């Protein structure tokens, strides 16, 4: 594969193998406060831990490749994500990004333990979470009962907390770009942890990724301005979060072709119920009990997050405040962005979007994703820029 091999990196790896892991911790690593032995896993150790990446240990398969469960000699369970993307990025850049991601730590984020860059494939090693991802439970009528209302509300608030950290508190701002039910993992107590938060950084804007929905987002969760024009900002995540909130309340996917026409698209259906003053009809019928005030608040926040206009979507700070303050009066949502759903295209025009972003005082964190080239430039926190990412679709 076409990855540019940096001789310094391999020399460092050789030192690691020859002299033990800690011996190779260089000055850079010491400055970072991250020792190399914390970062690198031997391929051999991962092969043994996963029974040579046996199908029996496969946890799932995503756009970047398969994920395997592994057991380390010290008894620690891990999840190994084999990145089978043909990355043109050099090994040094890759490990630099992993070092950054290792510093990104929050109780609502899956912990990245390190990486492995031996052999043709790069791998990421995560803590293993026993309850898999939210989609497994939420969209399975036999299992979804175990997600009672209190748990769902905790998941909704936990994901908001994790996103707030990524957007505002992490060492560098991270726009996740692929918030969805299968990227929310659940720990033994069903607490939510956002996963795959670094993939957009690790594989920024390469052509190969533009053609997959995996890195650029997943259909049904993507903000209209991003899906159509490639405009990427923290509000892209806010939109996906809104869809996820509505899925958690309703216990159904954002699109379900099996349902009757007016219900098939979750956002359109929620908007219709909102207009009729019957939002609580959305609540998952498998729930034995539910707090109607909390459910109505979640639905309203979900709709606000999915506003077509970027400026009308709250940022994660406001969302966190809405959840944690009793006295917060929620704004009334307008019609959500329904782009690309069931053939209906209600779009934010480019000019409206530009006006909104320029005028929006709370707007932060824009990124230019450059189609056709292999980088994403992070601009200053208050700037906004355009991307030609939609060329890849
Ligand atoms: N750290 C982990 N612990 C437990 N299961 C995991 C972990 N990471 C991923 N998985 C499982 O593997 C599946 C595939 O993961 P991924 O490659 O991220 O694809 P996707 O998120 O699109 O499903 C996930 O849906 C999840 O069920
Ligand atoms: Mg995932």
TrEMBL record:
CDD domains according to UniProt: STKc_IRAK (cd14066)
InterPro entries hit by this protein: CR_Ser/Thr_kinase, Kinase-like_dom_sf, Prot_kinase_dom, Ser-Thr/Tyr_kinase_cat_dom, Ser/Thr_kinase_AS
Compositional bias ranges of the Low complexity kind: 346-361
Region (Disordered): 332-393
Domain Protein kinase residues, every copy: 53-323
Protein name: Protein kinase domain-containing protein
Keywords noted in UniProt: ATP-binding, Kinase, Nucleotide-binding, Transferase
PANTHER family: CYSTEINE-RICH RECEPTOR-LIKE PROTEIN KINASE 3 (PTHR47973)
Organism: Malus baccata (Siberian crab apple)
């Amino acid at each position: 594969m076409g990855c540019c091999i940096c001789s310094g990196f391999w020399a460092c790896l050789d030192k690691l193998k020859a002299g033990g892991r800690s011996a190779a911790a260089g000055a850079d690593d010491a400055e970072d406060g991250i020792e190399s032995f914390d970062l690198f896993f031997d391929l051999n150790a991962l092969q043994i831990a996963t029974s040579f990446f046996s199908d029996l240990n496969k946890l799932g398969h995503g756009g970047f490749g398969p994920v395997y469960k592994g057991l380390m000699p010290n008894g620690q369970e891990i999840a190994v994500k084999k990145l089978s993307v043909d990355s043109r990025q050099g090994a040094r850049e890759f490990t630099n990004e992993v070092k950054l991601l290792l510093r990104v730590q929050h109780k609502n984020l899956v912990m990245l333990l390190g990486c492995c860059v031996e052999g043709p494939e790069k791998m990421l090693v995560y803590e293993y979470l026993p309850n898999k991802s939210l989609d497994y439970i939420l969209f399975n009528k036999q299992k979804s009962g175990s997600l009672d209302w209190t748990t769902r509300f905790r998941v909704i608030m936990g994901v908001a907390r994790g996103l707030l950290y990524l957007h505002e508190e992490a060492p560098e701002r991270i726009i996740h770009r692929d918030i969805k039910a299968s990227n929310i993992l659940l720990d033994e107590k069903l607490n939510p942890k956002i996963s795959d938060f670094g993939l957009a950084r690790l594989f920024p804007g390469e052509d190969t990724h533009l053609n997959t929905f995996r890195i650029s987002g997943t259909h049904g969760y993507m903000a209209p301005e991003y899906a159509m024009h490639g405009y990427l900002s923290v509000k892209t995540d806010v939109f996906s979060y809104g869809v996820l909130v509505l899925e958690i309340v309703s216990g159904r996917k954002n699109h379900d072709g099996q349902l009757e026409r007016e219900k098939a698209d979750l956002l359109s259906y929620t908007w219709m119920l909102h207009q009729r003053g019957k939002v609580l009809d959305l609540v998952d019928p498998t729930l034995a009990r539910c707090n109607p005030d909390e459910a109505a608040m979640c639905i309203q926040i979900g709709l606000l997050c999915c506003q077509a206009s970027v400026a009308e979507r709250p940022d994660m700070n406001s969302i966190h405040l809405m959840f944690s303050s009793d006295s917060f009066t929620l704004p009334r949502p307008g019609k959500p962005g329904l782009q690309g759903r069931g053939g209906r295209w209600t779009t934010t025009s480019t000019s409206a979007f530009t006006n909104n972003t320029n005028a929006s005082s709370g707007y932060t964190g824009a990124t230019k994703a450059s189609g056709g080239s292999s980088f994403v430039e992070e601009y200053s926190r208050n700037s906004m820029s355009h991307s030609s990412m939609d060329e890849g679709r």
